[in-house]
Structures are given as structure tokens and as C-alpha cells.
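Something for you to look into today, if you have time. I want to see for myself how the chain folds. Leave the record below and I will have a look.
***
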Amino acid sequence: MRVLLICFLLGLTIPGFSQTLTVRAVINRMIEDQQTPIQKGSVDTLIVGRWNQEVRGIATSFMATFDVIKRANRQGLNLVLTHEPTFYNHLDNRDTYGAQDPVVLEKLRYIEENDMVIFRYHDLPHQAQEDMINAGLVEKLGWQGFEMENMIFQSPFNTLGTLSEFLKEHFEASTIRVVGDPDMSITTIGILPGAYGPQAQVEAYKNHRIDVLIVGESREWETIEYARDAMEMGGKTALIVLGHADSEEPGMEFVANWLEQLIPEVPVQFVPAGNPLWGPE
């Protein structure tokens, strides 16, 4: 009986014993494989759905947008692992914009009527022995051979301009936002994907070992203005704002590749949210 209970918690199958794969079993197996428990105060939790719901397929995405949820549903993937919030605020409070907000209510209605489950998978991938979000971005860039230390790279490009053009084309972005002279020479690159906040970004920016800092996103009056003033004072470090979605979405594809091996009972698919922002050519 104890063996059956352990197998149930870990989502393990037993020959000759039919068992439904539940949401709890999937999450427990992920935690067991990562050897990283969910910490107190973590945002990683069940956003919509039930722990005992059957999992028929798993979708991973940077953001559980309405479009992502609908595409996952059409593919028979009823468990969506989303890196960022579903309801437009960090704690996924559905009442942030009013208890009867029409966008929140319609999204919730669709999720519940289609027996979907949304699980926030934000802290755990960053806390894994290898940060999965960082690993996915490095893999997307193809810079594994250029990494000198954690997220600091020997630059494959000679100038800030050529690096910026590569990022624009590689991520199919309308714009890449840059502080610095496009003709400046560069030899080292540091990356802080996502939204680390101004304290971490400025500290990384002041690292004299890097010529360029790439960040996911920044409020325009914080790190961006710090970098502009620093360069006006003679500083030699440029700043590139890649975009939060582009900088972290590859990490959720990395997660999908991991889960394909870990959860072989059901299909696993990366469903990209994409960057919603565009600009005229």
C-alpha cells in the first residue's frame, strides 16, 4: 500500500495497475526530478482548476494568453504551465481590475468550461540546479560555446550595431531598443532576462567586465536612463532591451523538452505566446 501511495504522489505507473495522471502527480514528479521544493511565498501554484483533475496533455508557454489557452485546448492539452501571470498581475488576483472585469471573466469562463488547468511555473524553473529559463535563452541564441561564466559571454559580434541586428532578426522583432553608439566595439555581453528590476540591472550594468548588458524589460525612467547618463559621462557599457517575452519564452520551450522525457504518458507541447508588441518598418 505504501508503494502505491508513493507511486501515486510521484505520478509513477505500475505494470498491471491502471492509474489516472492527475495535476498533482505531474507537479510532484517535476518537483522530485528538480529536487527543488516550492518555497513559502512562491507564486508557483494552481491558478485555475483542481489538483485531482486528469491531465490529458501538457502545454508550456511564457504567458497563458487567451490565444495560447485556446490553441492548447484545440491540441488536447488541458494542463497549461505558464511562466507569467494569467490575470495581469503578479499574484494572479482576479479582482485587481474589479470583481466583474469582462476580460478576466471571459477568460475564466473559457478555462472552466473547457476543463482546462492553469499552473504558474515561475520560481521553480529559475531555482532548478540549472536555471531552465536562462538555459533556454542561451540555447535559442546558440551561444553555449561563448559563455565564460553564468550569463556572461564572449561576444560573437564586433560592434553593438551588428549584435543588435542579429537579435532583431533572430527573434523576428520589429524593434530592438538600444542605448549606445552602434559603432562601438564590444567583446563581452551580460544578460539578465525577464524583469529583474532596477537594482539588479544597474548592478549588472556596472560590471566592468561587460561591454553590453541585455535585459528583458525595464521601466524607461530607471535602468535605461541610468545607462544613458552613464554613457554621457564617458561610460563604455551599452544597454539592449530585448523584451520580456523574447528573453524568457525560449526557457519554456526548454521546459517542454524536459517534460517530454519526464511525463511520457501524455503529449507535451510548447505553445508560444509570442511578443504582442510591433512597430512599423
Remarks:
- The two ends are 64 Å apart (CA to CA).
- The chain is about 35% helix and 15% strand.
- The chain has two domains: 2-127+248-270, 132-242.
- The domain at 132-242 is CATH 3.40.1390.30 (Udp-n-acetylmuramoylalanyl-d-glutamate--2,6- Diaminopimelate Ligase; Chain: A, domain 1).
